[in-house]
Amino acid sequence: MEKINIIGAGLAGLTAAITLAKGGRHSRLISLQRSERAQSVLAEGGINAALNVMGEGDKPEYHFEDTMRGGVYLADEEAVRRLTEGAPDIVMWLAGLGVPFNMKDGRLIQRNFGGQKKKRTAYAKSSTGKMIMSALIDEARKYEVAGLIERYPHHAFQGAVIMDGVCLGAAVCDTYTGERLTFGGRVIMCCGGLAGLFPRMTTGTTQNSGHAAARLFGQGVVFGNLEMLQYHPTTIGIPDKRCLVTEAARGEGGRLYIERQGSKWYFMEEKYPELKNLMPRDVVAREMFMVRRREDCGDTVYLDMTELSVDVWDKRLPDLRAEIMHYLSLDPAREPIPVREGIHYFMGGINTDVRHRTNIAGLYAAGECTCQYHGANRLGGNSMLGAVFGGKTAAEDILSLPEADTPDLPDAAVTDTEPPEAVKAELGEILYSGLGIVRSESGLMRALERLDELEAREGAFPESRLGRAMLLSALKRRESRGAHFREDFPERSEELRAPTLAVCRDGKIIAEIGGDRI
User: Which of 137, 281, 294, 462 is most buried by its number of CB atoms within 10 A?
Assistant: First the structure.
């Protein structure tokens, strides 16, 4: 009997396991932390679907158009169309599992999110991720009791078992006992984004190291769009990481301003009168960066939420208010808060087809570790949707295939371990120096030189190889598109309207636009 190995127990992993179990197939849910500690729990704002419950005539086609436009037409059109057409069923399935989405007069309600002209973001106050995860955890437990899902918490992914271009299983290590295990069966990677490559600079959980994805990159798995890092416009600094101030704050009426010659300048409203503070995240983050550089402006951008009603704070954003008061000792209902851009999401990741298959047979990927749906910039509310839909899609593809033979596999070999914290911090600073909000060839080349020096001293390791691929991808894209802004190439080039693909072969890292030589 084949058991599917799912690496990661967040939204994508849980959905994949549940979908497989509903189809009568067994899986192992393998993760460093229990689901209650997954990064998915941190997601706040909501999940998108064109339900058309707000009387605005919304439909999946409009969701498709907004997603493609927000990603600056870099995402796979067929994949995005499947995502947006499947979104209403996903949200209604979650509601049926007991997710307490905000309701009014017995019907689900939705709100505005950036880059979208319709109210299509369903939400559970400002703790949507936590609420969806709770419902999925409860659903998964039914199948755990039935023996269809086996939990392996505190187990670290060491690498895929790949023979003759086919993934036959996964090597893992029990972080409590040190025991190394090799599990046969196909593998679905749901290991999250690459936050660990940028220590203390991201809104992601500090436990999300990126090591699992980096290990796969070293094994010849093709990655895509690695240059596309999303800087969320509104974050605050807390110990060891950035803390997200959800986009829902602006969706409910929060306004960004900077002091200009002694007066408040609501720059987004002046520059973008249609969507104002709800422009796509790459645009807002870049505008914040630019206004701080102006000689006639101060050095701090503020988010003004003082005009939000008591009802909004009590029913829609109570957790956000408590969080800000805890970390900043400021009440956002009474005074503006200082905000700054922070790395929030990785549009780039493992390259897959529309069925979430990678270039290695038997190996799938879903969730933030992929580059499937978001192109050059992700719309708020599409991340949880992409994770749930991706996990479901990968599992459904496996269900459509006969069970694979599970041969005896060799014991897990000793593999690369994660580098020391000081080395990871140095790598993160090098990558950040080249992959900031505004980039240039000179900055990227200097970052690559510094990376050469680091590897000469410490030796190459999985994260450094993946980091090099990120820098090379940004160097290859000699245009500005979405989250990738080159001040030496500030215009968009339609000749470069293709994904950047990167691969590591025999220790050599190759990155190409379009991937003709990948």
Answer: 281
